[in-house]
Design the sequence.
């Protein structure tokens, strides 16, 4: 291990764990690519693949940092492990927006309109992403560290707020029988298809919420604080939470319910 690693991590990081995490996310990405291609699912499903590969890069850089640390590498690691899960929130927003669009329901409330669901939550995700990336970069500068920390805190808090709003919208669409989901090859009915898709969204959003709360508390506690210095907490509430999200996406793969346009035309 590099002599300076502990100066950046504030603890002695476990060797072997980031290598294993990187390998796991590569496997996750490969499985999802196979599922998408096999199902001929919509191309926006590749958001999941991109996120898994970004996580892989983050853990590869973490491996390098343990042995050959530098400020640039450390910042790169932080950004790749902090920001990619925002894309998983975007994926869930897209799924619910597509359900609203495909169902062709005349929404009685503006926040149930397909374009609002997709673009409003997408914009909130991008805004949160920009705040977190800006704050993360500023934290690398000693005279801007405190300001950067609180910008990250604001970004994470905004993400949690919009996630909570999204949960309300998702529950309303889930409970409204007028919103339907296209049947996949293993779905006995549209009702069961919708139940499986929405259960996937609810479960992964809950896991993302847990991870975001952990990251928010970690930021408030500060660099070098008890939470930041507890490596086990990082692997439980960040790595494990995100991995569980991917496991849900894989086990309850919903690509069959959102085929490419050419596939839908063939079905018609």
Sequence:
């Amino acid at each position: 291990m590099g002599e300076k690693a502990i100066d950046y991590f504030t603890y002695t990081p476990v060797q072997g764990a980031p290598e294993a995490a990187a390998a796991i996310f590569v496997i996750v990405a490969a499985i999802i690519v196979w599922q998408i291609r096999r199902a001929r699912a919509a191309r926006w499903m590749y958001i999941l693949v991109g996120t898994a590969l970004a996580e892989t890069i983050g853990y590869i850089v973490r491996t390098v940092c343990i042995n050959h640390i530098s400020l640039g590498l450390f910042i790169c690691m932080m950004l790749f492990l902090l920001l990619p899960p925002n894309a998983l929130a975007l994926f869930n927003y897209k799924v619910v927006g597509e359900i609203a669009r495909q169902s062709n329901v005349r929404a009685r409330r503006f926040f149930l309109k397909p374009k609002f669901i997709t673009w409003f939550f997408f914009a909130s995700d991008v805004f949160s992403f920009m705040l977190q990336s800006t704050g993360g970069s500023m934290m690398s500068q000693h005279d801007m560290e405190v300001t950067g920390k609180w910008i990250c805190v604001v970004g994470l808090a905004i993400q949690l707020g919009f996630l909570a709003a999204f949960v309300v919208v998702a529950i309303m669409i889930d409970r409204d029988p007028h919103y339907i989901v296209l049947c996949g090859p293993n779905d006995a009915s549209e009702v069961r298809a919708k139940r499986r898709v929405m259960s996937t969204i609810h479960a992964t959003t809950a896991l993302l919420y847990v991870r975001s709360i952990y990251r928010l508390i970690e930021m408030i506690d500060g660099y070098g604080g008890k939470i930041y210095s507890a490596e086990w907490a990082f692997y439980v509430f960040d790595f494990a939470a995100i991995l569980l999200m991917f496991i849900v996406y894989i086990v309850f793969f919903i690509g069959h319910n959102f085929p490419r346009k050419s596939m839908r035309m063939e079905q018609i």
